[in-house]
Amino acid sequence: MSDAPYDLIVIGTGPGGYVCAIRAAQLGLKTAVVEKRKTHGGTCLNVGCIPSKALLHASHLFEESKKHFADLGIVVGETKLDLQKMMGFKSEGVDGNTKGVEFLLKKNKIDAHQGTGRITAPGQIEVTADDGSTKTFQAKSIVIATGSDVTRLRGVEIDERTVVSSTGALTLETVPGKLLVIGAGVIGLELGSVWRRLGAEVTVVEYLDRILPGMDVEIGKQFQRILGKQGMQFRLSTKVTGVETTNAGARVTLEPAAGGTPETLDVDVVLVSIGRVPYTDGLGLEGVGVAKDDKGRVVVDAHYATNVPGIYAIGDVIAGPMLAHKAEDEGIALAEMIAGKGGHVNYGVIPNVVYTFPEVASVGKSEEELKAEGVSYSVGKFPFTANGRAKANGQTDGFVKILADAATDRVLGAHIIGPEAGNLIHEVAVAMEFGASSEDIARTCHAHPTLAEAVKEAALGVEKRAIHM
Ligand code: FAD
Ligand code: NAI
């Protein structure tokens, strides 16, 4: 048994865990974290949000310089790819971020124990280091923030070279001639875009009849058209029934989702991106009796408490969208509650962004959700083709859509496809947090010329009084 007991030990230093630990330490709790990776930051910083955004940024500039710089009068000669250097740029971004978390943990005097944590009893954690040595720690509260892992496709082995998950797709050593992506969700479309921009022929196979199934249908349709124009190919309502690795790559067997004649495609690399599952392997939950649901998620109440007193859970390992900012906000709320304050996450206002070009962003309800709930709503829409700044920049694909309650005008949701959509959505998120009406957004003076004026015009559009269309 080591040292004096902690107030709080967090298992996992992803965005949920490290943020929870920092907030707890700020509030005066004696806090420790346990992380089995060599670096902090979890999936997001090591093999998720950060490396994928670095590659999206670099590959976007690569494509811009190849296809669009000349239109702007910028002559740069032949654009060439140095993939190794681009991967180095990505790794620098990852290092900078993971070291930043290490610094913050130290700054907040949080003890960081490297190794795999297992809950051996309520209030007790055993940490096994890589060399097999173990240490046991006591804590009044334990937070499970162990995140998620790739969903496997039955019968398809991921070797992270020919058949890759997102992790392997972030470290390919050469640009594949042909890349087949299984699943038209966020990972498939973001990483599919990276490799298409760098020269791969990309085909996305999706089981359902639409891409980004969780998103507003109109946005999904337009997004598919835009990605199609960029050269991404889609096979919707199609399922992969087998992947066989060959000397040259992989042979993929597909058939219509409803059943029918199979066909085969020979490709160089297959990306399996069909979702993620909560990760609780080796945590010892069965031993202490922590309940999980039928999807393997740790069951918690509104205060993130499991059924075992003193054990809590946040982030990807519990229900809700698997997003870094959702995990972070839960971490803050939980730390505040454990410290005796009131913590809160508004699940109705969690933005969702796809970082392609153009970006796709949403917050609140989609039209389909409002219809299903029987809520009457008004729609205000404004295209970027009518926005001065988008026109000046030559980036006019997409539109802003604002959904407001037909009776009260309260903003219920917003959906944006277009340049900087991921930043623009936050104006509406803040408005929704304050319970604003579309009139409130419409009456707010927006600087000209900005892309944000499209948000104002969409708000004006709720009452059919947009000025520039
Ligand atoms: P994680 O980040 O998964 O962290 C869990 C940590 O726990 C890990 O470091 C793991 O090593 C550790 N751990 C697990 N078990 C143990 C144990 N027993 N002992 C010790 N340590 C343990 N989300 C966004 O919001 N925006 C994005 O742009 C985005 N891009 C993504 C791109 C990709 C390719 C992927 C895969 C995901 C992306 N996500 C994105 C999702 C985001 O990464 C997750 O929602 C987020 O990381 C969840 O945070 P978490 O703290 O719950 O878990
Ligand atoms: P996803 O849930 O976003 O999409 C998976 C897609 O695969 C769905 O469209 C689904 O219908 C399809 N699918 C499922 N089984 C299939 C099958 N057998 N054959 C063909 N298609 C199939 O999952 P994804 O893309 O793997 O991402 C996992 C999570 O990571 C996301 O839910 C998201 O929360 C997070 N993430 C967030 C990002 C962001 O915020 N920008 C970026 C990347 C990941």
UniProtKB/TrEMBL annotation:
Domain Pyridine nucleotide-disulphide oxidoreductase dimerisation, residue spans: 350-459
GO cellular component: cytoplasm
Molecular function via GO: dihydrolipoyl dehydrogenase (NADH) activity; flavin adenine dinucleotide binding
Residues at which NAD(+) binds: 183-190, 206, 275
Matches recorded under PROSITE patterns: PYRIDINE_REDOX_1
Name of the protein: Dihydrolipoyl dehydrogenase
InterPro entries on file: Class-I_Pyr_Nuc-Dis_Oxidored, FAD/NAD-bd_sf, FAD/NAD-binding_dom, FAD/NAD-linked_Rdtase_dimer_sf, Lipoamide_DH, Pyr_nuc-diS_OxRdtase, Pyr_nucl-diS_OxRdtase_dimer, Pyr_OxRdtase_I_AS
Binding positions for FAD per the UniProt entry: 53, 117, 146-148, 316, 322-325
Swiss-Prot/TrEMBL catalytic activity: N(6)-[(R)-dihydrolipoyl]-L-lysyl-[protein] + NAD(+) = N(6)-[(R)-lipoyl]-L-lysyl-[protein] + NADH + H(+)
Record: active site: 448 (proton acceptor)
The entry's keywords: Disulfide bond, FAD, Flavoprotein, NAD, Nucleotide-binding, Oxidoreductase, Redox-active center
Note: The active site is a redox-active disulfide bond.
Pfam families: Pyr_redox_2, Pyr_redox_dim
E.C. number: 1.8.1.4
Disulphide bridges, residue numbers: 44-49
Organism, scientific name: Salinarimonas soli
Cofactor binding notes: Binds 1 FAD per subunit.
Any one GO BP annotation for this protein: 2-oxoglutarate metabolic process
